[in-house]
TrEMBL record, chain B:
One Gene Ontology biological process: transmembrane transport
Cellular-component GO terms for this entry: plasma membrane
The organism's taxonomic lineage, starting at the top: Bacteria, Bacillati, Actinomycetota, Actinomycetes, Micromonosporales
Protein name: Putative spermidine/putrescine transport system permease protein
Domain (ABC transmembrane type-1): residue spans on this chain: 85-276
TrEMBL record, chain C:
Name this polypeptide is given: Carbohydrate ABC transporter membrane protein 1, CUT1 family
The family this protein is said to belong to: Belongs to the binding-protein-dependent transport system permease family. CysTW subfamily.
Main location group: membrane
Entry's localization field: Cell membrane
Membrane topology category: Multi-pass membrane protein
Organism: Micromonospora coriariae
Entry's Gene Ontology BP terms: transmembrane transport
From TrEMBL, chains D, E:
Classification via SMART domains: AAA
Alphabetical keyword list: ATP-binding, Nucleotide-binding, Transport
Name this polypeptide is given: Carbohydrate ABC transporter ATP-binding protein, CUT1 family
Superkingdom, natural source: Bacteria
Pfam family, one: ABC_tran
InterPro entries for the chain: AAA+_ATPase (IPR003593), ABC_SmlMolc_Importer (IPR050093), ABC_transporter-like_ATP-bd (IPR003439), ABC_transporter-like_CS (IPR017871), Mo/tungstate-bd_C_term_dom (IPR008995), NA-bd_OB-fold (IPR012340), P-loop_NTPase (IPR027417), Transp-assoc_OB_typ2 (IPR013611)
GO cellular component, one term: ATP-binding cassette (ABC) transporter complex
Recorded GO MF terms: ABC-type transporter activity; ATP binding; ATP hydrolysis activity
Domain ABC transporter: 7-237
Length: 383, 295, 299, 374, 374
């Protein structure tokens, strides 16, 4: 069932990229960020409207850590059959470091007019990506706290209060291992702002308060689940009373029914949003025809009508990376879901709190590593 | 001379039987207790996945709030399970076929012949089974990627052959040893050449062994996570790897849709198993066993 | 012209080659040999040489790096701490059960069939099931709570025990079937003979069956230990992969696919293989101290 | 040595599934006796032995050792020794340890175990092999270990299940004498299972012939040899000539029968009447080739096949009426020879051919009869 | 049927590891002959047969079929038939398909295969069983399938490796006659391996006795039986009485020896001189119990063990000087009886006891000698 890749068929990979492909291409899309949830409908629509550009599309998914290895191997074998990669910051950065991606900017800036309309924090996220990636969806993420009012009436609103609450309610506070969890990493990266650390961008030298805080907090944490899903499950079944979340993880699981609808969120005084985005990148070694097709597709995806689809069911709330995309232009299903499970207070929270871009990939990996050794792994030695 | 004195029912039934069974009870109870406990928990493990996959919402209760089959549709679509299952079957069939083709003749030579270096060769064939898959899987994947053989189905098949061929050799050896070599000699004395002996005499006699070994390889391949994980490309994932991704890849996913996928996986395995057990005795799946008489 | 001496001419050269065991039949071995060399030995030695070519430092620096870092080094102990007890339990629990089931009885096929099922579940599904079943609100804890055996859910997943149970579920049936087949390989008349010589069941077991079974147990232990030692998905899914179940295969995996440091990953993989082979060698050496010849029962 | 004066099997029966493997075996074994259980394959010999040993539970019946009921005891508490067909030596124990096993189980003092083991080793002449493992011994040596192991703890009864069937002809002959010698010198009570009539005849004080789980005859070797109870036993005891016949006339124990055109005079075995179907049984060595006998039981026949057997020749001959004769003679005969043969009427046994006596008469039970009929 | 007039084994030898399993076998087989290879276990019989069949490579020597060298041919191209000890029937094929296998391999026309298969089936009388699988047949029936399979394609030579050793005594006797009959009716050239001297005597035209890989004697059954070439062959041919002796006096073929105090008159077998060590060989049936013989070879002895053997008794007796005698008699004797025994000098064979004649004299080669010496 595997399509014989376009990378192999049309030999030219480095020449001039035409406006449109000479022949309709088959596009293989690899998603390592869970982004297709938001964008698959856009791509499908493009394909159905432009069968002469993309005749067929296949989707596959993989965990982010494997991305670089896989692409590198395909390039080494001179047989790149993935035309488009949808990734988060981590996969993007890993590829940049290894030189896997074709530079889209500034060469194709003018083909991607939508990029001029980025929301301001989305534009900052795009900056973070350098020249390789094109931000296709954006959300301010967190860190947020989430709880069930039936189990917890007054959630802590400050860092100290959180610590005190965790102490008073041992094993009831949970967040997942940051390396495997969006909310986990957002919490990790957001803490320096909350605690007023010296350099929130330098986990090695500038996060003294953060590490101390996490260590102390760790004493009251039972264990760190290996994924966010687990924390959500524990919130729902009552094992955990207070967990770390993001806008998307707040809304979507309640839509899905894996977290009770009545769950609430809380914020910690002085928090900054640590934003997140998904990017589209093209591996090097993709034929010029495919490159042309991908560029046309991306331009399409960045139009406001298509961006509206990124509201989804709150998966990446709000989702659109460009300005002036109204919920009312989203598909009806999206509108219904967000009307029922969304939170009116988000508009104010997003407008009223500063946004920060996440750590660059190197620092992030260093932070994860330190967290694994000192916070996550530390639990063993204590216990 | 013995004469039949009485009709059988007139003799008292012997008491031995019952008495000795009673004496054996406590030990038997403990053993059966442990077995039942194991099975109950196993049942719990499997059933909780099954129930959850049909559960609408399941928080802090014994059973879900409501039931739905929609998770199956979601899992099916989200992970393109049709394609994954097709790939899984293709990979399995290829691995089974190739490992039998390569392994059975080798098993025959190793079972029947002695020649210089045989022990060494046997050891080399044993190593892939003894080594942790990760140990050779990582360098293997690196090499396969280097030659452009990984990241697609050929890589998955090749990697899975590494433990499968030795496995075929190991499971076939006792079956081959069981065939009286004189039967081969007899065939040759009847004028059959080597090829005919293999095709007309050995192969039919080895059918149980080949089946057992094929099934084992099939089950192992479908269940083989590490090697497939290391060598699969996006379009050559097998079901286990897709399942692993569904549990650990990024994105928000309802627990139930993972459960649904797990149920799909289990059903496939069970179908294979039911088919398999029509042909082989379960203990044969591990080793060739002669049933002993009952007493 | 007498004796086996040089008088008579040696037989035709074809006889002499055949005598050494070298004849056309050996060609049957060739495909398998090519295969094992290309797909096992070559990658293995490739990995071995790669592990001596670290990105920086001398040939042994990646090994030194592993052993000097307690976090990395500790994975050996973590892995052994999980794998050895799990393999031991699997083998030891299998013995009495297989001993009871070695004869023929009604339902034997059913029981053994049921035992094959967990082998087919695979580690990932088992993990998912354990998460559901043993989780804080899973049926297991619910029953414990409902029967007042505990006041609070017992933590059985996302820690050592989760991985341990996963290894038992997948490993025990395998061990059982192996032990059963070894037991059936022991001629049942030996035990009957011991009975007529005055040995009660306890001594029949300890003096006859067990010594004859020991080599089989050692082999079974090795095979289940291999399975347990390479534990990977369940260590991530039901264990605590940052902490007490950060097994060595996870360290190798992270080095390869998260840090893209293939030489280091190869070094870890080699260390992993080495540790495992050491354990196996020890067990097999012990095995050789038992009687390992025919036990007469196999067909 | 024997701890009892009598061992009594009382209606011992054993079913497997729905099938009777052993039906109502009544047998009294006197201390010191050598009893052979004899019969074709599958007749229940091993079943009987295993029931006696306690290795098989009984379906019906009981076993008494003098006044003590023992069938409820497990094998290890009956104190019988057993020699298994395949010896069942413990492969992981040396010859010495194998032999000492039964003494160890009885927790005798070390010194006594050593002494009695050595004695047994000497008895079976294995002094040179005590430290070998069974796998390193020849069949005959293994057999001797098995015997030593079974007798070393002086069991009140020794059971042997076809202990010689795995040996070659010459060794079988030697071991047979050995067993006989051991039995005589130790005064062991022995129950011995075999399907070889020669073995049974040469070893036992009394023979028990079984067929399809039922006792056919119990008696001394001489009784068995000369007066089998029915034609099945006769067939089994070497009466190779079995012919269908019809009883013509009875005169006390003398009976005249007609068989494929020959009128023959013989001994009536059992309850015959004129006109009934009968089976005539004659041993090959009881057919004489030395011309017309004075007793009238003579026929002329043509020699078809001759086998040299040393002192004697074994031959097949066919009478004019097509009857096939198996005979043995010291005469020099050759295929094609016309001979006159005669049978002493005392050696020509006539049995009833009906179901009442040892089962239905089916042609496959009577290969020679069937052959003659062609 | 035979496609050759002579088959010649020329110095055929076979080593395993460092050990000679077969040494310099020279043998010429004439078409139509029935040759038995005879000898104790491990003497190289099967090795010889397998070399002949092509199933084992030779170490030395060659095999010639008339003028054609055949030892370089693989077994399937020699065109010999073989009957294996455990029959080695193809368990997955019906009786019919088993028998037809060899014809199929020769790609004969369908019709001919059918015809010849049916003929063979009829020959071995298995018409009723053609569609059964071997597992559903009795031992004797399987044996007949094996024979049919080996002869159906009219091989120039049929090899049989202990084809009867798996059968019980009664069936063995019947199948022996069967093989003899087949050989006679088909005129097959046959090489037959057995360790049972009785079987060899009764079947073969010529016997080849092997010991430790070397031919001891080749001759007719009668020669073998009455004049074994050395005491090893004698031992094997049923001369159970083997006594050490010293030659006292020679008179042509007549020789006087002294053996544990008795002066005995016998036949000199081979090159004896006065004063040399000798071995006396006597068959049990050649020791008569009927009082002092006229020839002087008489001793008085005490009966020790008696075995009933039907017509005869087998007994062990001990002379005053401690010599153990194995004897057979029709006399009614019992343990403890004092008897006078006599041996016909023609039946008392005297062999040289040294290494030149059949190897070194070791006590374990002479169990009876050893026994007497105790
Ligand atoms: N465990 C068993 N289950 C079912 N049937 C059995 C069992 N053991 C024996 N039988 C049957 O009982 C009958 C008697 O068997 P037994 O072993 O006593 O025969 P035997 O006389 O010893 O034969 P042989 O000479 O072949 O050893 C046979 O028909 C046999 O098939
Ligand atoms: N494959 C082998 N490897 C080593 N030695 C062998 C092999 N086959 C036979 N021998 C040895 O060769 C000698 C002759 O063996 P062979 O099988 O020819 O004896 P045999 O006369 O057929 O004995 P038996 O009557 O026991 O079948 C024996 O000492 C045997 O141990
Ligand atoms: N590796 C990219 C991580 C992005 C996680 N996205 C999850 C969606 C949150 N709503
Ligand atoms: Mg039996
Ligand atoms: Mg042989």
């Amino acid at each position: 069932g595997a399509p014989e890749g376009p990378g192999k068929s049309s030999g030219d990979t480095t020449g001039e990229v035409p406006e449109r492909p000479a022949r309709a291409v088959t596009l293989n899309v690899l998603d390592v960020a869970g982004n297709l949830q938001l964008t698959q409908a856009m791509i499908d629509e493009f394909v159905s409207k432009n069968p002469n550009v993309i005749s067929r599309v296949t989707y596959s998914k993989a965990p982010a850590p494997e991305l670089a290895g896989k692409i590198k191997a395909q390039q080494g074998a001179d047989r790149v059959d993935i035309g488009l990669v949808l990734t988060g910051v981590d996969g993007l950065a890993a590829g940049v470091e290894q030189g896997l991606w074709t530079d889209v900017l500034p060469k194709f800036q003018d083909r991607l007019g939508g990029m001029r309309n980025y929301l301001e924090p989305a534009a900052a996220m795009q900056q973070l990506a350098g020249n390789a990636g094109v931000a296709v969806t954006y959300y301010p993420s967190g860190p947020l706290l989430e709880y069930l009012p039936s189990r917890l009436s007054a959630p802590p609103t400050s860092a100290d209060a959180l610590l005190a609450w965790a102490k008073a309610n041992p094993r009831r506070f949970q967040y997942a291992r940051p390396a495997n969890s969006g909310p986990g990493r957002t919490f990790l990266m957001g803490l320096p702002y909350i605690l007023g650390d010296t350099n929130p961008k330098d986990p090695a030298a500038g996060w003294d308060k953060t590490w101390a805080f996490l260590k102390e907090l760790g004493q009251y944490v039972d264990y760190y689940p290996s994924g966010t899903t687990e924390t959500m499950k524990n919130l729902a079944n009552g094992t955990a009373h207070l967990i770390v979340s993001t806008t998307g993880w707040d809304i979507n699981p309640r839509v899905l029914g894996t977290v009770p609808k009545e769950a609430r969120i809380a914020t910690i005084d002085g928090f900054h949003w640590v934003t997140d985005a998904h990017y589209a990148v093209m591996p090097k070694g993709v034929s010029t025809d495919t490159q042309a097709a991908v560029l046309a597709l991306l331009a399409f995806m960045l139009t406001p009508e298509q961006q509206a689809k990124a509201y989804d069911e709150g998966y990446f709330y709000p989702g659109p990376a460009v300005k002036d995309v109204q919920l009312s232009s989203a598909p009806q299903k999206s509108q219904d879901a967000i009307r029922e499970f969304g939170r009116p207070e988000y508009d104010a929270l997003i407008a009223g709190n500063p946004t920060e871009v996440p750590l660059d990939a190197k620092s992030l990996v260093a932070a994860f590593n330190r967290w694994d050794r000192e916070i996550g792994g530390g639990k063993v030695k204590q216990g | 001379m013995a004469t039949i004195t009485q009709a059988p029912p007139a003799r008292p039934p012997a008491s031995t039987d019952r008495r000795r069974r009673v004496a054996a009870r406590p030990a038997a109870w403990i053993v059966w207790g442990v077995v039942i406990f194991f099975f109950l928990n196993l049942l719990g493990v499997v059933a909780s996945v099954l129930v959850s996959s049909f559960g609408q919402r399941w928080f802090d209760t014994w059973l879900p709030d409501g039931y739905t089959t929609s998770w199956y549709g979601r899992a099916w679509d989200e992970f393109a399970l049709m394609q994954v299952i097709v790939v899984t079957l293709e990979v399995s069939v290829l691995v089974v076929g190739l490992s039998l083709l390569i392994g059975v003749p080798a098993a025959y030579v190793l079972a029947r012949r002695s020649f210089p270096g045989k022990r060494l060769i046997f050891l080399v064939f044993l190593l892939p089974i003894l080594m942790p898959p990760i140990t050779y899987g990582i360098p293997l994947a690196t090499v396969l990627y280097k030659f452009g053989l990984a990241g697609n189905m050929s890589g998955v098949v090749l990697a899975n052959l590494v433990p499968s061929v030795p496995f075929v050799i190991l499971t076939m050896t006792p079956f081959i040893e069981q065939i009286d070599p004189r039967i081969e000699s007899a065939a040759r004395m009847c004028g059959a050449g080597l090829r005919t002996v293999f095709l007309r005499v050995l192969t039919p006699l080895l059918v149980p062994g080949i089946l057992a070994s094929a099934i084992l390889v099939l089950v192992r391949t479908v269940g083989m996570f590490e090697l497939t994980f290391l060598t699969a490309g996006p379009d050559s994932q097998t079901l286990v790897v897709a399942l692993y991704y569904s549990m650990s890849a990024s994105g928000i996913r309802a627990q139930q849709s993972v459960d649904a996928m797990a149920v799909i996986y289990t059903s496939m395995m069970l179908v294979l198993l039911v088919v398999a057990l029509r042909y082989v005795n379960p203990t044969q799946l591990v080793a060739q066993v002669k049933e002993e008489p009952e007493h | 012209m007498s004796g086996a001496g040089p008088g008579r001419p040696l037989a035709h050269w074809q006889h002499r080659l055949a005598e050494r065991g070298v004849d056309r039949q050996l060609w049957l071995l060739v495909p398998a040999l090519i295969f094992v060399i290309a797909l096992f030995l070559y990658p293995f030695f490739y990995g071995l040489t790669l592990s001596f070519q670290p990105t920086n430092g001398g040939p042994f620096s990646d090994y030194a790096r592993f052993f000097s870092d307690a976090y990395e080094r500790g994975t050996i102990w973590i892995t052994l701490r999980i794998a050895l007890p799990a393999a031991l339990l699997n083998v030891l629990a299998a013995v009495p059960i297989a001993y009871r089931m070695r004869g023929r009885f009604r339902g034997k096929r059913l029981v053994t069939t049921l035992l094959v099922v967990p082998i087919t579940l695979g580690t990932v599904l088992t993990a998912q099931g354990l998460l559901n079943f043993l989780g804080p609100t899973g049926w297991f804890n619910r029953i414990l709570l409902a029967t007042n055996l505990v006041d609070e859910p017992v933590r059985l997943i996302h820690n050592y025990w989760g991985v341990f149970f996963s290894l038992v579920i997948t490993g025990f049936p395998f061990a059982f079937l192996l032990v059963l087949s070894y037991l059936s390989g022991i001629d049942p008349t030996l035990e009957r003979a011991a009975a007529t010589l005055g040995a009660d069941w306890r001594r029949r077991f300890t003096r006859i069956t067990l010594p004859l079974l020991m080599p089989g147990l050692a082999t079974t232990f090795c095979l289940t230990f291999v399975l347990a030692f390479s534990v990977f998905p369940s260590a991530v899914l039901v264990g605590n992969p940052a902490g007490e179940t950060r097994v060595i295969s996870l360290a190798a995996y992270q080095a390869a696919y998260e840090q893209y440091d293939y030489p280091y990953a190869s070094a870890i993989a080699m260390i992993m293989g080495f540790v495992e082979l050491v354990i196996i060698a020890l067990v097999l050496a012990a095995r050789n101290r038992f009687y390992t010849g025919s036990t007469g029962g196999k067909g | 040595m024997s701890a009892f004066s009598q061992l009594r099997l009382d209606g011992v029966s054993r079913r497997f599934g729905g099938q009777d493997a052993l039906t109502e075996l009544d047998l009294t074994i006197e201390a010191g006796e050598f009893i052979a259980l004899l019969g074709p394959s599958g007749c229940g010999k091993s079943t009987a032995l295993n029931c006696l040993a306690g290795l098989l539970p009984l379906t019906r019946g009981s076993i008494w050792q003098d006044e003590r009921r023992i069938d409820t005891l497990p094998p290890e508490r009956r104190g019988f020794g057993m020699v298994f067909q395949s010896y069942a030596l413990f492969p992981h124990l040396t010859v010495r340890a194998n032999i000492a096993f039964g003494l160890r189980m009885r927790r005798l003092p070390k010194e006594e175990i050593r002494r009695r083991t050595e004695e047994a080793v000497r008895l079976v002449r294995l002094e040179a092999h005590v430290d070998k493992l069974p796998g390193q011994l020849s069949g005959g040596q293994q057999q001797r270990v098995a015997i030593a192991r079974a007798v070393v703890f002086e069991p009140s009864l020794v059971l042997m299940d076809e202990p010689l069937s795995n040996l070659d002809a010459k060794l079988r002959l030697e071991m047979r004498t050995e067993i006989r010698r051991l039995h005589q010198s130790l005064g062991l009570t022995t129950v011995y299972v075999t399907h070889d009539q020669e073995e049974a005849l040469s070893l036992a004080d009394r023979l028990v012939v079984l067929r399809e789980g039922r006792v056919q005859q119990i008696g001394s070797p001489r009784e068995m040899h000369t007066r089998p109870a029915n034609w099945h036993v006769a067939d089994f005891m070497g009466y190779r000539n079995l012919w269908r016949a019809r009883v013509e006339q009875l005169d006390g124990a003398r009976v005249t029968v007609e068989s494929s055109g020959h009128r023959l005079l013989g001994e009536a075995m059992g309850d015959l009447r004129a006109g009934v179907d009968a089976v005539v049984a004659v041993r090959p060595e009881d057919i004489r080739v030395d011309g017309p006998g004075e007793t009238g039981n003579s026929m002329s026949a043509t020699i078809e096949v001759v086998e040299y057997q040393g002192r004697e020749l074994a031959a097949e001959a066919r009478t004019e009426s097509g009857q096939l004769l198996h005979l043995r003679t010291e005469q020099r005969i050759a295929p094609g020879d016309q001979v006159e043969v005669a049978i002493d009427p005392q050696r020509l046994l006539v049995y009833l051919a009906d179901a009442a006596q040892g089962g239905e008469l089916r042609p496959d039970h009577l290969p020679h009869v069937a052959e003659a009929a062609r």
